[in-house]
Amino acid sequence: MTKSAKPNFNRRAFLAGTAAMIGAPALAQDVNGAGTVEIERDISSAVRRNISSFRSLDWQPYFSNLNKGAILVDTTSRALHYWSEDGGGYRLYPTSVPLTEDLTRRGRTSIVLKDPEPDWRPTPSMKIRNPEWPDYVPPGPDNPLGTRAMHLSWTYYRIHGTHDTRKIGRRSSNGCIGLYNQHIEELYQLAQVGTQVLLI
Asked: What's the CA gap between 99 and 178, in Å, rounded?
């Protein structure tokens, strides 16, 4: 094997070896309703994971200040960046992002509610199309929103956890941003109501 071929082989081996650890659902929930959400579409083997563009960023190109902290969600690299208000704390998390462009919302918003024990309900339209879905899932291990959820000012949009980690690192959601439960629990402690959020 030549030296130039070796990195390609190692990268493929790395991707194959980590395939089982990457994935996650991002479910949308109505900020103004009683816990309404849209459930995920199924993903196929054609949905590709993203690893290579996962990298740290500076906040200055995206925000004019860090008042109440800042969250940047990069839908291309499928990563969430968090900066603390004092600029001394930075976190970078892999995420799931919306499946298609028509489901992807970009722009500025903020955290308007923090839910420490999210519950889940499908929207009426989702229930009509998928009558087998439960009417309600209480907080706990089967909840699609995981262990924490942070509501954005946009209706139906959340940053939340998941118990199903298969979709983290993929385009897989109906609009929300999904994180591993351990990551949303950490971010939940760091972020606050009023934290500015930018999706690009």
From this structure: 12
State how far the Cα of 80 lies from the Cα of 95, in Å rounded to an integer: 7
Contact (Cβ atoms closer than 8 angstroms) between residue 110 and residue 197: yes
Indicate if the pLDDT at residue 155 is higher than 50: yes
Contact indicator for 90, 70 with CB cutoff of 8 Å: no
Residue 79 CB neighbours (<10 A): 22
Q: Which residues are catalytic?
A: 160, 176
Residue 99: pLDDT over 60: yes
Q: Which residues contact 53 (CB under 8 A, 6 or more apart)?
A: 76, 77, 79
Cβ atoms within 10 A of the Cβ of 84, count? 16
CB count in 10 Å sphere of residue 54: 15
Distance CA 22, CA 13 (A): 15
Q: What is the mean pLDDT of residues 60-76?
A: 92
Report the distance separating Cα 77 and Cα 97, nearest Å. Answer: 9
Phi, psi of 7, rounded to the nearest 5 degrees: -60, -40
Contacts of residue 121, defined as CB under 8 A and 6 or more positions apart, other chains included, come to: 34, 35, 36, 37, 135, 136, 137
Residue 56 has pLDDT above 50, yes or no: yes
